[in-house]
Fold these 2 entries.
Entry 1:
Amino acid sequence: EVQLVQSGAEVKKPGESLKISCKGSGYTFTNSWIAWVRQMPGKGLEWMGIIYPGDSDTRYSPSFQGQVIMSADNSISTAYLQWDSLKASDSAMYYCARITVGNWFDPWGQGTLVTVSS
Amino acid sequence: NFMLTQPHSVSESPGKTVTISCTGSSGSIASNYVQWYQQRPGSAPTLVIYEDNQRPSGVPDRFSGSIARSSNSASLSISGLKTEDEADYYCQSYDNNNWVFGGGTKLTVL
């Protein structure tokens, strides 16, 4: 079974850094793109960007370019999303999802809730 | 930029059929496949329709998808509504290296 398991909820202060993770299993991790999707409280889904673990090729949505960094560690089949300096507006649920060859998202991780508050 | 527009909410009674629309902002929605995701409260989204009208394994045949080129829109229909179908539904497509989601539709089964 293809599965993505994300790291647990985080509570941070503005200005702090953060790295959340997404571990894949049940498939060849290096052969599929991984996407990150943001969902702010009570709002819809926003595509943030994608990473191809095979060669770490990344593509960011213009809305998130320069705001986050995506990376991957193939030795442990894990993708990461990181912030160097969090803002309160980064408070949201973040999902990772595998992108199929048909450009849709399946499956999804369970989500990581990030709360940024002073 | 390509955008997908959905109604904010729809409601229907158990046992009935409901249809949720997803309208493309420009070009032809038929140029790229449309997918639909269900997100129950407190849960991650799950795929219910891919490639306009295909159901993943495990999704009941009460769920169906279609494309209407004349109105540049896609639709998700759910027949024989059950209370467990109450959720947010999002359409999604792909255009020029961008993955686009509709704003989501809250389905209430009352």
Entry 2:
Amino acid sequence: GAVVSQHPSRVICKSGTSVKIECRSLDFQATTMFWYRQFPKQSLMLMATSNEGSKATYEQGVEKDKFLINHASLTLSTLTVTSAHPEDSSFYICSATGQDHYGYTFGSGTRLTVV
Amino acid sequence: DAKTTQPPSMDCAEGRAANLPCNHSTISGNEYVYWYRQIHSQGPQYIIHGLKNNETNEMASLIITEDRKSSTLILPHATLRDTAVYYCIVRVGWNDMRFGAGTRLTVKP
């Protein structure tokens, strides 16, 4: 089956630094990738949608300059949280879909803690 | 606006069937119903999907009403490992995948 690998699984960073999270599709070409954020005991909130080779489309209220998304290849998308603050601490999850892959496969998530 | 309504929580006895309902009264003709589940601190896991016919796989069965305004996910023999949040999602296209609050299923021994 389709596999999406997300790294790192956990990261702790200092306030003011940047953190990069990688999302890779291992056995299919991910034409579209999605990034979500999930706070404790809440549902997943869609942050942005990225199509390979195009700029990401951000949901209302998500700062594009703070959450930089790059989807330069059909197997890799990255989310960079810039100038992280404690309120950015959350569980970040990516998912991917492709032309020959119906449904969406999710990564295992990244627990970001900003101290 | 996730277009679906699910009960916030349900309990089920281990070994019994778990029936999780979902209302999607505004579903359109070309929209599929997907079910995912999320075990604590993991990414969501695909369970099953359907358009209008009932579907079954090794994990679950999906029953969709004739008018397609609601569906039920059935886990035939729930185990403790099935404790998770279950999300019913109506897919509107390649670029829209939104989650509602889901149902927190607790399987009890």
